[in-house]
Input
Amino acid sequence: MSDQGESGAGGLTGLVQGLVDAIVRLYRWLYKGLERTVYMGVQYTYPRRFVTPLGYLGVLTGITFLVLGITGGLLMIYYQPTLTGCGSLTCAFASIERINDSVPFGWLIRNIHYTASNAMVLLAVLHMYYQYFSGRFKIKNEVLWVTGVILGIITGVEAYSGYDLLFNQRAGLAIEIGSSLANASPIIGGTLRLSVFGAGFSDFVLRLYAGHVFILPMIMLILVFWHFPRYLVFDLPVISTVVGGLFVIAAIFPVAYQPGPYNPGNGQITIPEWYITGIYALIRTEFDKFVMGGLMPALLFLMALVVPFVDTSKKLNWKDRPFFTAIGITSIAQIVITTAWGFYVNPNPNPTCVVNGAATSGTLCRLFVDPVLYFSSMLGVTLLSFVGTYAFLRYLKAKERVRRATSPLGPLLTKKWVYITFTLLILAQVALAGLALLSIFGFHQVVGNVTIDIAGGLKSMTLFDTGAILVTFGVVVHLYRYSQSLPF
Amino acid sequence: MAGAILSLVPFVPWGNFLLSTVSSTGADQKQTVVLDMNTPTNRNANGAVAGKTVNVNDLTSFPPNGSWLITYPTSGDLTVDSENPDSFQKYQLIRLPEQLGGSDKSAAAFVAFSKVCVHLWCSPNYDPIIDPTTKQRSTNPNDETYQCPCHGSIYEVPDGLAIAGPAHFQPAPTNAIPMLTLTADSNGDLVILPPVWDVDHNGVLGFGRNYQSYDTQILPAAKGTG
Output
């Protein structure tokens, strides 16, 4: 390799070569060492061919968890889970402001953490529904399903406690409502609230922090040992694409830490994060707070927990299980309807309305979710989606029988369509980059006395480009792999 | 074995693990009403009164139909009080509208409601409703209300009884907001009397109060020494 004539350069090359060799040897040594560790119990499978994107959802949830762990660990360095002693702002809020505005790379880390937290909730839900419809949770996989549902609940609690740590207006209200919902549970309520949340806001923030960064993640890590399947689909291009996608979303929609620090004197109507608006809508129907805010969501989780012990047939495909498929579709419809209701607030600043037979006005009219309207729409959606799904599946079955008889399965994607998809993806990249560029100039403006700062300018671009590179890598590698493989 | 454990369950002090109870360190005592400093309502909307001591004779700084944020019990340091976001130590001081006697130069012109809604602990605010037809502040005394921005509980002023919204559907005593007893000293400075934290007197924060009308429960104390 090295040229004997030029001893100086040759020596350098030799040195570099030696270094590279040493690194390779170290890597091999570490890799071989894995044989002696617990990880050998987990078999990773590297698929040669793309199977179905939905099959990766579980691993993607795990990868998002890792991303959250890394960025969360970095955020811990600057975050202060205390309230008083930092001037006119609470320490918690002031430290978030500091992370966002002055700590180097703090803005990037915080935005990735926030986007990843939302993605994890979403991915966990999608993962659950895929496992449900594909029937993978059945037959000896019940343990995986049950631990999965518990992990899902903890993910929700993690997301909730995470957005409470900001201690902005929304967080303050969420903490108050969360603690008083715990307090409203029968018999154990007071004890539950005092032991989980503590007393007073200093306690609330500190305990939510302890739970968010240590206690809950530890429980999740332990539960994951009962949640990993025997064969874990681990696909680099897909992971790269999704992590890159997280970055791109974080860049295009940077999250604000507003609306301002928590202040009990602030009378603004504040809508919670999207995964809690369902409960918010239920509470706003004015029925008992514990039944609506505690029992109803608990029922949903309980239903999910018992499903593998009820749906015990040996049929896996969703088309062969019309009853349980219909139940699944219905639950999706219910969640969507309830969440949508939660977002609804009467836009009229001073409306008048009739609540339970009495004419009223003001805040109540803006927030009131009419139980008659709400529960009848819920019933309607339940009936429609259940009957609809059931009928559709029977129709599908008849059609499938005819189709199978006439023509066999063809390739999923022809080469021509691979090229078209590839071109479209590149165009999408260009469009997104343009959008991000525009955001530097376009979305930073003042309307009235409100500053709309949707994008973070150059910081956005950095994050966007990193994400775009990861996405492009994933997509190109996948398309190459796909074009090389035989169609079925 | 399981039976033995189960029968012991009621006797285990479950509540003592990690338990932390509300401790009012400053001890409840007489306290002059001083407005918080860092809240927008005290700073802007009703004149620059932040940090001021409330005097019942001062109708310009503390006009009828105005509302401000106060802290009780105080830590003794106004800066620390103002930084404290704990709504369990916050109260909304309201000078009643004129038709309810807000222009009286006595403590009876004021009420102080807890900032903790008895429904789900959100923080309600004083809202002098604007009449939809006249576009003026309503003259109907029942229209001046204390409203919660989270789930829409509406409390009557000056009684603090929930008249609409989820808190209204809760059984007594969980349907009235706790409030402080106010009086005025010889200079006219507004003073908070030591509260009795049970449902029959000032109420239990975040829980409720046995509703008694403003005239029988609050007014005598306010008029008596004021």
Summary: The first helix of chain A runs from residue 7 to 33. DSSP finds 16 helices and six strands in chain A. Residues 1-41 of chain A form one domain. Confidence is low (pLDDT under 50) at residues 1-5 of chain A.
